[in-house]
Amino acid sequence: MSWKTPQNRAIRDVIQEYMDWGCSQGGRGGRPWSKHHYRKKKERLNWWLNALKIDTMGDIAGILPRAEAKLRILQKQGKSGKTLSMYSGDLFSFSNWCVERGYLESNPLRKICKFSKEPTFRRRAMTREELKSLLVVAPEHRRLLYEVACLTGLRAGELRARSEEHTSELQSRHVIS
């Protein structure tokens, strides 16, 4: 297929084809994407379509300066370099996929500038004094949650996923009393 053929094709149709491919075999080693990866990629690609006002495959030509301008706006809004890299990476990988399928002659983002992925702030463990101060003022239901988090090392999402069965398991291992 010539890359000129699909220029008038709706980009949303091509993105859906890309997303279907990803759910089937788009991950490493031909494995499907995870549900979370799929959802985030779909959100960011839709954001690009709206931000750049892209309707057809032909609208992708020459988008590099506009894409970089949109990324700078996100940067001014306080988005981290890691977030900016995820946004640009999703559009970049979609464009690469389009080249491989003959939908584009070349990737219009092949020279997109990179952003530093350095964390914007460093996380650290609370000191004993900070933890004591927190536990003194925390409502009882929160205090228990904070104690479990500190004693187990579980993150917020991991704590939310806990059930009564998990609590019994932790008690049997004497992690919590």
Q: What's the quick description here?
A:
The radius of gyration is 23 Å and the shape is elongated. It has helices at 11-25, 35-52, 64-76, 81-100, 128-137, 140-152, 156-160, 164-172. The chain is built from eight helices and no strands.
Structural class: mainly alpha
Order of helices and strands: HHHHHHHH
Count of alpha and pi helical runs:
8
| Helical coverage, percent range | 55-70%
User: How would you characterize the largest beta sheet?
Assistant: none
Number of strands: 0
Q: Provide the β-strand percentage band.
A: under 5%
Overall outline = elongated
Low confidence ranges: none
Q: Give the distance, in angstroms, between the N- and C-terminal Cα atoms.
A: 66 Å
The pLDDT mean sits at 87
Radius of gyration (Å): 23 Å
Per-chain topology:
Elements (H helix, E strand, L loop, with lengths): L10 H15 L9 H18 L11 H13 L4 H20 L27 H10 L2 H13 L3 H5 L3 H9 L5
How would you sum up this structure, described in words?
With 177 residues, this protein is mainly alpha-helical. It is built from eight helices and no strands. The chain has helices at 11-25, 35-52, 64-76, 81-100, 128-137, 140-152, 156-160, 164-172. Helix 1 (11-25) packs antiparallel against helix 2 (35-52), helix 2 packs across helix 4 and helix 3 (64-76) runs antiparallel to helix 4 (81-100). The protein is elongated, with a radius of gyration of 23 Å. The termini are far apart. The mean pLDDT is 87.
